[in-house]
Design goal:
Helix content is 26%, strand content 26%. The chain is built from 4 helices and 7 strands. A hairpin with a 5-residue loop joins strand 6 and strand 7.
Amino acid sequence: MTRRIFATLVAVGLLSTPGMAIAAEEMTMWKSPWCGCCDAWANGMRTAGYRLTVENREDMSPVKKQVGVPAAMEACHTAVIDGYFVEGHVPVEAVAKLMSERPDIAGIAVPGMPAGSMGMGDDPNARYDVLAVARDGTGSVFHQAGVR
């Protein structure tokens, strides 16, 4: 590939740095108004190029139920992007993978609040699983954070 073609592909967003959003995808996030780790996660998504709308909620249960997050997969905040839910401290790389592969699932989740995840210390060596959540609520490993 010539430099000119490569530069053109990068400029129009057809190539990107791994883990970065290819285009400015729109995402809506619901969180508690007092949650600092959720704010840190939102900032990480914005830095990666996602256009994020944040809505504060006192009670997250109705949001999680509405978007289809199973109770076993719940975390502190919930986001939606292009029809998928993104539950909890999901790393940028997993969201980018979701958007590029577009699997037939309800969403992806990082249940709980793993130490070192984005918003929870941002340790690039933190190891935890991002689960693909099928429409029946079952989960399987979609991405392994910290595994290179």
